[in-house]
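Anyone able to model this chain together with coenzyme A?
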Amino acid sequence: MDVEPEKFNPEDIRIEIMNQNYDVSGFNSYEKELVDFLREDALENQEQRLSVTFLWYYKDHLVSYVTVLNDKINLEGDLKEFFREKGIHYKSLPALKIGRLCVDDRYLRRGLGRLMILSVINVADGINKNKAGCRFITLDAKRNSDKKRDSIHFYKKMGFGTLKERMKGTTPMYLDLKLIEEN
Ligand SMILES: CC(C)(COP(=O)(O)OP(=O)(O)OC[C@H]1O[C@@H](n2cnc3c(N)ncnc32)[C@H](O)[C@@H]1OP(=O)(O)O)[C@@H](O)C(=O)NCCC(=O)NCCS
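re: yes, here you go
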């Protein structure tokens, strides 16, 4: 009989903003592009003010990371109609984008992905409170022909909708923060 892997206790997790003192060389994922980004580009992008990367540690092990940046959604189709009905006629609306999000292979399916999504919602809520408007969380979900590795299913479970369904590459997705607030 399979034993359910133990979930992470949020109290045992430490979150650090990346800087040159952190060693990320041991991080590993089946999504090699996300490993390369962390090792080669994340810090430089942060220094260039293109994104901020949060490193997640559990008992001093680097278990996952998430990279965020500012974004906007161009309103088209059903989404445009939805806002028109509310009297909102802008062409685009502000968003916070999850540029990269990855859990190390050794720690998958233990609740870290969900906790990282909640942490980004928390960042957006903080921005909305007294800094700037932010209506959505956006991301481009990586598609994988192996269903267990196809991140679109994970994001749908987290409440994200698709902007444009694409079977290969990435699928743009969004979460409406106002709808979450109301539910
Ligand atoms: C996608 C990813 C972040 C999910 O992280 P995780 O820590 O394994 O996910 P969680 O344990 O928090 O799962 C939350 C829920 O989503 C489900 N889930 C996770 N991955 C899933 C998948 N590929 N397909 C379907 N459901 C999935 C879990 O079963 C869980 O459901 P439950 O609440 O009913 O138990 C992780 O698989 C990953 O890092 N993959 C490699 C990189 C990647 O694809 N990142 C996304 C790029 S945009």
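The first strand starts at residue 13 and ends at 17.
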